Amino acid sequence: ISAPPSLMSPSIPPVPSSNGIRSQDGNKHPSLLLILGIGLGVLVILVISVLVIYSSTSHKGKKHPPLQES
Questions:
Q1: From the centroid of its chain, how far is CA 21?
Q2: Is the distance from CB of 44 to CB of 50 less than 8 angstroms?
Q3: Closest Cα partner for 16 from 7, 31, 24, 28?
Q4: Model confidence at 20: pLDDT above 60
Q5: 58: pLDDT confidence band, cut at 50, 70 and 90?
Q6: pTM of this prediction?
Q7: Where is region (Disordered) located (predicted)?
Q8: Domains in the chain: boundaries
């Protein structure tokens, strides 16, 4: 008769994985570079979206008359 595997040897507790970035003090905080990168990316996408929307709506109602030679 053999003992269950849990009683045969002491189990080693799992080491918790670090999901956040830790500073030297051990405090979890996101990197300033990461925040600036995300903010800059959002700003670029916002500016491009506004320019595309503005250019598509500003040319919608304008019709150029055909050029007449004199």
A1: 16
A2: no
A3: 28
A4: no
A5: confident
A6: 0.44
A7: 1-23
A8: 31-59
Q: Both tokens of residue 6?
A: 């849990």
Nearest to 60 by CA among 49, 70, 52: 52
The SS3 call for residue 53 is helix
The 3-class SS string of 19-45 reads CCCECCCCCECCCHHHHHHHHHHHHHH
The dihedrals phi and psi of 67, each to the nearest 5 degrees, come to -75, 130
Q: The tokens 């008359």 sit on which residue? A: 65
Q: Produce one character per residue of 25-48: b if its CB has 16 or more CB atoms within 10 Å, e if not.
A: eeeeeeeeeeeeeeeeeeeeeeee
